[in-house]
Predict the structure.
Amino acid sequence: MNALLLRPPTGVKAPEQLQEVWIHNPRDSGAQGYLPLSYPDYVYYRDHNQSFEEMLAYDFEPHLVIWNKSGDGQTVFGQIVSGNFFSSLGVNAVLGRTISAEDDQTANPQPVVVLGYAFWRRYLGSDSTILGKTLMLNGANYSVIGVAPAGFTGLLVGFEPDFWAPTAMVEQITRDKGRLSNWGVHSLIAIGRLKREASISGARAEAGVLEHRIEMDHPDLKRNYDATVFPATLIPAPFRVYVRAFTALLMAVFGFVLLIACANVASFLLARATGRTREMAVRSALGAARSRLIQQMLVESTLLSSLAGLLGLILAYFTAPLLLALKPASLPVTLRLPIDWRVLVFTLIVSLICGIAFGLTPALRSASAPVASNLKDETQPAGLRKSRLRSLLIIGEVATCTVLLVCATLCVRSLRNASSINPGFNTRHVIAATLDPGSLGYSEAQVRTFYEQLSEHVRAFPGVTAASFTDHRPLDLRASTLSSIQCTPSQTKTMGYQSTYCGLRPTTFRLWVFRCCEVATLFLPRASKEAVWQSSMRPWPNGSGKTKIHWANE
């Protein structure tokens, strides 16, 4: 919860002043009713608003780019940002400079990039002479002008860009001509820094007025939208409700587990208090007040809960990286789980509350025990009530454990059932490689020729039964909106799946070569894996070299 909802952007000046601007479609509900801004929208809001000191923008979706590293193709992630992105956030480069408004002129865009600190350290060895050098990204050269400071990853949680480039270069990076002038490409999240004299409600009202003016100035758009403003966080505003629901579920599970642990501790303290009644009686006989006895018992219980909280922090520090290591390597998500002051304060408060709440009853019972009868070592009349209380704690603990075990069993069973569903085609021995000829400026005909040559070349390998390509993988949730080729049927033999796939022998692999929406399916024997790595890249022109092949289900 801290990493997703509470922690502000690292290294950003006065993040509480930042506000998000979204277009709202009143005909849709939930997150589907909100749209990012197009580039013309952003320019209009930036130039005509009176509520924000500055307004920046960044691309909501990271861009997968091919970096030609000494002839070897490597995929990296970049983010498109406006020229005032870094200056508006108060972020200065640790080396060189950041992107400026002069770099982001649509009439004269500058091919420059600012490198992420982690990328600079990991792949460039913290080279201090990197300034002025060029990186070949998607077949074009970009000049390195600076390195972002350590810890700064932008304004999106879970995404750590390898580089930032000006918005004016988006058409060259994506090969999407006319994107900067298209009102229908909603891809930019606009962030404004609220003026001191302005209010959120006033900015929200002004955004609605500006959206109405856009529709009046451009009646051909016919979108009938509204606009609204939200406080900016690392989770975009329309999606926070889903993240809150997910984190609330996690906190509920945490609460149940904590309740079980506290019931255990309360039972232990009750049993211990029963054995200390004579000690408490002696203290009372020596003049100790009842409040003093209660204070002593509460100090002991809170000390115990504080030690437990400290142990939990230590375990969290060492186990959080192990939890993140379970993430699939193909998932481009970088989530940081720092133990900052929010975690420390939360742990301290929970420890104190648990220590006082579950230590108060044993303290009251110990302090209220009759002095005379305990000094005479007589039978305690409250023993039956104490046994009943301990029994209730045990019953509650067992009931809570039962609920959690049933829920966990159902979740595991559902996951096993989902993993065993028959998709309708053979999924064994599958390998995948990512190619992106479209990002190098290939035309539709060139892309088709490239894939046909690649498929024919691989079919010539001994043991290969078939090769083909399509616009998306089966069961892929991503829509094929950027396809530059159509599916081409190939040999369909034994799989019973009418697409671009064909039968394979038990000793073969299948290779999906895809560009978000362009997939080549290649069948090859296990022994030919290295040969395909080398040979399938030979038709790749324009100086990009090889690209990464991800071998799966080996």
In short: The longest strand covers residues 72-81.
